[in-house]
Amino acid sequence: MKFLNGEWLVEDGFEAKYAANIYTSRREGDKLVLFAPFNSPIRNAGMTLDGGILTIEVSSPRENIITTRLVNFALDRSHEPTFPLNADPDNKVVIEEDDNEYRYRSGKLTLHVGKGDVIDFSYEYDGKRIAHSGFRSMGLVTDPEGKTHVLGQMDLGVDEKIYGMGERFTNFVKNGQQVIIWNRDGGTDSDQSYKNIPFYLSNRNYGLFVQDPGRVEFEVATERVSRVQFSLEDQEMTYSVVGGSSMKDVLTNYTALTGRAPLLADWTFGLWLSTSFTTDYNEKTVLEFVDGMLDRGIPLSCFHFDCRWMKELEWCNFQWDEDKFPDPEGLLRHLHERGVKACVWINSYIGQKSPLFKEGQEKGYFIKRTNGQVWQWDRWQAGMAIVDFTNPQAVEWYKNQLRHLMDQGVDCFKTDFGERIPTEDVVYYDGSDPVKMHNYYTYLYNKAVYEVMQERNGSENAILFARSATAGTQKFPIHWGGDCHSTYPAMAESLRAGLSFGMSGFGYWSHDIAGFEDKPTHDIYKRWTQFGLLSSHSRYHGSTAYKVPWLFGDEAVEVSREFTRLKLRLVPYLTSQAKITHETGVPMMRAMALEFQDDPACEDIDTQYMLGSDLLVAPIFREDSVARFYVPDAGGDHAGQAWTNLLTGKSYEPGHWYTESFDYHTLPLLVRPGAELTMLSEEDIDEQCKARGIATAEEGRRYAEQHPAVDY
């Protein structure tokens, strides 16, 4: 929210009141409660009348995290959803006071609150200042419609960079951007996002988490160029400053509070193949695709059935279209016999034509309007309703649909949508505030689906392919990047988004290889295949076009085979890195700035990344096959040592940018000096293929020669 007119004035129709200073305080157990008058310090008893006061509560849910709650009017919050947080009941804090300040310490993080004539909140981690809020940094703004907004601000230092706030397709560094935390189904080429996380990460080694699932607005050097502003339409706002010795350490502390990604089974890191979105398919098509991949020596881990496994206009009915799939149990059994898992597309919407609609309507399982009728509209599915996950009986009903599918042989689910959740004329079963539920809905939706798989398969084999997210849904992996175009700019914006997502506490991430919206060129298909199979999770998917490689030329088949097998060879390394993600919250796909925080050259890089701690990946985004990439210094005992391309053996000295051409079988994939990269051999992969009845590399090449690619 922007409300200022330059530095001194307020825009017409707005009114601003700022916390002036700390007038008085009290201690409530481990909580420090401060009282700040608006606009000017209280000089005498008469000034305590008619002016209002901001209540500031300081607490600590966990070590190295200090939470501030700004309260104007103390309203009943029992009807509002809140993020589940892992508070530590044994956390110890120290509260001190002298003539000049209050000190509130949690672990190595200390908040100094000045007692002068202006607000002064200074955060130190291990004795070093990492964040500061000063003059006019806390207050209330009334907008032209008379609505109250609570705001806070943090100073933005010289060379300070802000990252994160979810999967954002805009510039990787958020300085100069307005970021609105509001889930939307807006594609990948705007400032809208499917996955909005009210958390940012600063290279000054702190994170800021606004603990509200509602519409939080960040102004990163756009309202005041030397500050980050965060605001919320409400009478109160709670935010936590998370300290650490590095940005990685901050993520570790933040995910200790909000949750971490679980460990995943090895098979999840392999290649997933989708039918694509609106493409026509049946049992014959599925078997042709699966057998076509395996016979060409391209091992599949999972096959995904998108929307049209169900009848049109009935999404979701959770029933196979019997005309296309007369024997789903037999088909799924055949996939399992070939070592391939099965995933099906679902969402939380029930079209009016679905046989489930009447049952859900009669039993009150859907979100309702204020007049008691089911909330419906015609976007997406005709007359569709939305499952109300605040109703425990609706949750169990929804889970039962999934249990039936798992009984048939389905292994996992793609939880699509969850962003277009209404806020007007809406009533939830438990009375939840509809505005707060808009973003939070995805947490309840994905949690319900994840729990079914966890119940049946155990945590390691519980895996979603989710599009929407909010804070905490990193506990229900994995997430993919949404509806991107089949272009190089879209490929680059997808990577930017994935890196931002990783800076927001999410450990795993995927994207639609070769793009979703269009038919890719042969060139883009091959380049995106390289990128996709060097991401934490990998899936071919599209909208109107099938994405099997033999439709994109003979070389596409070779590239797909080579990089799928390369990823399988890397599984021991990937699982070791996933363990780090599970234990620390540091993502598998890491921005260069996260891994090499002390190298200024890495601060803005968003066209390459680290896959774990030891592999540098620089996807190629140009038709001329040229890659421009930077090689940092590994530091420590290996400072100054060269990196080596895993695919070509070529060495690269650190501290330099390189511009180089690569064919479709190579790209910059550099091994960090000193790394002990655990990999399987080509022979190991061939043995795995033989055990599953899949063609070996040589057999796959021979089959491909006998069945040349067809361009369509």
UniProtKB/TrEMBL annotation:
Pfam families: Gal_mutarotas_2, Glyco_hydro_31_2nd, Glyco_hydro_31_3rd. Residues 262-576 form the Glycoside hydrolase family 31 TIM barrel domain. GO terms for molecular function: alpha-D-xyloside xylohydrolase; carbohydrate binding. Residues 585-675 form the Glycosyl hydrolase family 31 C-terminal domain. GO terms for biological process: carbohydrate metabolic process. Keywords: Glycosidase, Hydrolase. SUPFAM superfamilies: (Trans)glycosidases, Galactose mutarotase-like, Glycosyl hydrolase domain. Transmembrane segments: none annotated. It catalyses: Hydrolysis of terminal, non-reducing alpha-D-xylose residues with release of alpha-D-xylose. CDD domains: GH31_N (cd14752), GH31_xylosidase_YicI (cd06593). Its EC number is 3.2.1.177. Residues 55-219 form the Glycoside hydrolase family 31 N-terminal domain. Belongs to the glycosyl hydrolase 31 family. This is alpha-D-xyloside xylohydrolase.
